[in-house]
Amino acid sequence: MADGRAARGRFIVVEGGDGSGKGGVIEALSARLTAADHDLLVTREPGGTDEGLKLRELLLSAEGAVWDQGAELLLMTAARIQHVKRVIAPALAAGRIVLCDRFVGSTLAYQGAGRGISESLIRGLHRDLVDDLWPDITVLLDVDPRVGLARSRARLSDAELDEGRFEDLDIGFHDRVRGGFLDQAQHDVERTLVIDAARPADQVRADAITQVLARLDLLPS
After folding, report:
1. Exposure string (b/e) for 122-138, b if CB count within 10 Å is 16 or more?
2. Which positions ≥6 away from 176 have C-beta within 8 Å?
3. Confidence (pLDDT) at 151
4. Which residues form the Thymidylate kinase-like domain (predicted)?
5. Residue 83: closest CA among 66, 102, 111
6. In sequence order, what E strands does 77-187 have?
7. Tell me, what's the pLDDT at 62?
8. Sheet holding 192-196, edge to edge
């Protein structure tokens, strides 16, 4: 730019239900963008800051506290405030590409559609406390929760991770979460890429890479 300031970066978020394959897609996207010499920051929610990691342990532990749904929403939002103010916004201002595992779309799906909290309340908190920051591109990995939950439980067991509090909720909850994600996609088609995540992982990752690069205008001519 003529005044010497960096152009704003691009904010890409990968969303989806438990076991949809977000981690593998983020790893594949990260490798492709890094190989092309893009300045990339990879982060996740809840997490991304020291405070966020502590809240992640509190919120996701299957052996942890039973949170009231309102408290759960506020803790998720608190982690996001720290994450945006200290990590995401500075990276975008510096012109970096930020690739994030979950963002406010997950709150709308899990605490909104899943828990039944008012969407207007969630959006109001995001507007007033998180600077109304939204992704430039959302990659939604869509899969039947019965398939996704089986994958996620196997992953948690293999890795001996105590992050299964949401996996332990009933299938009706997870069906509502999936519906919440798809409803968001329907209302934001310009910025959302819906990818069939029931397919083999290599196909899902390749599809995600192709669609994201096309949206970023980075595909070779």
Report:
1. beebbeeebeebebbbb
2. 113, 114
3. 86
4. 14-207
5. 102
6. 97-101, 137-142
7. 65
8. 40-44, 97-101, 11-16, 137-142, 192-196
Residue with tokens 């996001």: 80
Domain boundaries of the chain, sorted by first residue: 11-215
Number of neighbours of residue 168 by Cβ within 10 angstroms: 10
- Classified by CATH at the fold level, domain 11-215 comes out as Rossmann fold (3.40.50)
The strand ranges marked E within the chain are 11-16, 40-44, 97-101, 137-142, 192-196
- DSSP structure class, residue 143: -
Q: How far apart are CA 94 and CA 200, in angstroms?
A: 36
Number of residues in the chain: 221
Residue 221, pLDDT score: 44
Q: Are 181 and 15 in contact (CB under 8 A)?
A: yes
Contact 84, 130 (CB under 8 A): yes
Residue 15: phi, psi to the nearest 5?
A: -120, 165
- Name beta bridge partners: 99: 12, 42
Kindly report the pTM of this predicted structure: 0.90
- Name residues of the chain where pLDDT drops below 50: 1-4, 221
CB atoms within 10 A of CB 220: 4
Q: Write out the H or E segment, with its range, that includes residue 197.
A: none
Tokens of 72: 């759960």
